[in-house]
Amino acid sequence: MTAEAERLLETGRRAESEGNVREALVCYQAAVTLAPEEALPWLRLGTLCHRTRDFARARQVLDEASRIDPDHPEVAFRLGLTCDAVGDRERAKAAYTRTMLLAPTSWQTWYLIGRDHRQLGHAEVARLAYVRALNVAPGEPEILAELGTLLWEVGQRADAYLYLEEAVKACPVDPGFTLQLGLAEMQRGDLIAAHRLLTGAKHLDPSDRRIDVALQGLALRKEESRSRQRRRAA
């Protein structure tokens, strides 16, 4: 890969970490143009498209990354996530299986083990798998978000909040991560923080009905809070 393509990828990574989706997309697309036969630019572009909920484009881009490097475990993993998101369960399962075969001790494999056990209701086994994944890849936002939501579900809310907060810090462009933290803030009673996060999530993905439902719930909580204040004042 040329030095210019590497520079574009690094600039795109910084822009993504700062929440600047537009600049990150421009940089990753430019890197793809400069190095069309390298898998990494396609992987970075596809991952960002997935995180910003452009699943159709993500799948197209990650398919190309997979064509270029069919033995890249993260390409297989990201392609699996995107196929899952669009409802192609068979293709997702095949991609996940390939991920685990290519990299049996990777964070992606531990993440998938954790997710499988979570779906089966094995919360503690899932937690341990996510922790193993974090040991391999500290700060990976997908792991942080999964572990945070799992801990929230089982009542370990103090620890859960920390993981959800770290997920948003690590990946501010994903509306799903921001939504989960906003819901956590609402349940903690910090309605100002919840409003900031939920409106931010809405800006990132205006079409997500889950965000609309959360904003409606927040409006009800605010009205209840105002009603209590009026009763106390009376």
Briefly say what this structure is.
By secondary structure, this protein is mostly helical. Helix content is about 80%, strand content about 0%.
Description:
With 234 residues, this protein is mainly α. It folds into 2 domains: 1-104, Serine Threonine Protein Phosphatase 5, Tetratricopeptide repeat; 172-234. Helices cover 81% and strands 0% of the residues. It contains 13 helices and no strands. The chain has helices spanning 3-17, 21-34, 39-51, 55-68, 73-85, 89-102, 107-119, 123-136, 141-153, 157-170, 175-188, 191-204, 209-233. The radius of gyration is 19 Å and the shape is globular. The N and C termini lie far apart (70 Å). The mean pLDDT is 95.
Keywords:
Serine Threonine Protein Phosphatase 5, Tetratricopeptide repeat, single chain, globular, 81% helix, 2 domains, 234 residues
Chain-wise SSE layout:
Blueprint: H1 3-17, H2 21-34, H3 39-51, H4 55-68, H5 73-85, H6 89-102, H7 107-119, H8 123-136, H9 141-153, H10 157-170, H11 175-188, H12 191-204, H13 209-233
Helix pairs in contact: 1-2, 2-3, 3-4, 3-5, 4-5, 5-6, 7-8, 8-9, 9-10, 10-11, 11-12, 11-13, 12-13
**Quaternary organisation:** single chain
The tally of helices reads: 13
CATH topology of the largest domain: Serine Threonine Protein Phosphatase 5, Tetratricopeptide repeat
User: Sheet bearing the most strands, described?
Assistant: none
Number of strands: 0
Shape: globular
Helix content: over 70%
Classification by helices and strands: mainly alpha
The Cα radius of gyration reads: 19 Å
Question: End-to-end span in angstroms?
Answer: 70 Å
Percent in strands: under 5%
Low-confidence stretches: none
Highest CATH level, the class of the largest domain: Mainly Alpha
